[in-house]
Model the fold of this input.
Amino acid sequence: MKVTVVGAGNVGATCADVLAYREVANEVVLVDIKEGLAEGKALDIWEKSPINLYDTRTVGSTNDYSKTAGSEVVVITSGLPRKPGMSRDDLIQTNAGIVKSVTENIIQHSPEAIIIIVSNPLDVMTYQAHLVSKNDRTRVMGMAGILDTARYRSFLAEALNVSPKDIQAVLMGGHGDTMVPLPRYTTVGGIPVTELIDGGQLEAIIERTKKGGGELVKLMGTSAWYAPGSAAAQMVEAILKDQRRVFPVCVQLDGEYGIDNCYLGVPVILGKNGIEKIIELDLNAEERALLDISKGHVNEVMQVLDNMG
Ligand code: LMR
Done:
């Protein structure tokens, strides 16, 4: 089994490292445009194998996509990260062109690959990769739901002083400030979260989750990588091992939730064919209204991409 990760920056390298040490694939190819960067990071990960005890081969390539041929899954992390004061949408002008050319190269060498987008603005870059690859919508998806729910779950675990392992949650919508965490579908060891935390505290955690990426950008001057890279690797694992995990994933909606042609995070079953099923929750009026606001925002940014031609 072969996986390619495009972009050997912090997110791509973290993803490749997790894929290697968890032995998700036999071979992980890391690609970057910066001369030697992917080769160096791939070599560093390989040199760690006797310490962490794995045998996944890691291969680096400076923009030579022939090395990616026959990949079953490709993770695209390429593009600029945001800086303090920027929104993810501010990256569209630069990242749209990068995601376009990376997707063209990938499809040329691995026409069957399932594509996972990590580049921002996430939902619209998923749209871009879908347009360029012309793949079935079940085989082109965006990563961010696992990341956003992980932030939400980690904040809840801290507030409740419990293990993050016991927090289950789902979150919908775009990967931006309009994302929709769903307390009604959040449990702690099977107990509804609303029975364990007061409303004000839960609301503060939801607000922190929505701005979770920005909190890290402010702290570090650039965007996060451990959680985003690990989240993408978890999706690859679910696909390659046909685990049929249930995750929120960004996908083109085609009538689900009464929404057409918009790329939004929704709960799905992830398995060997990519998105095996989109799960439609019975949202209440308040949740539905929040999802519509998120959809409106993503549609606006999709329009920007359309206008760029
Ligand atoms: C994240 O949420 O960490 C990423 O989307 C990067 C960012 O700019 O916030």
Remarks:
- The mean pLDDT is 98.
- The domain at 2-142 is CATH 3.40.50.720 (Rossmann fold).
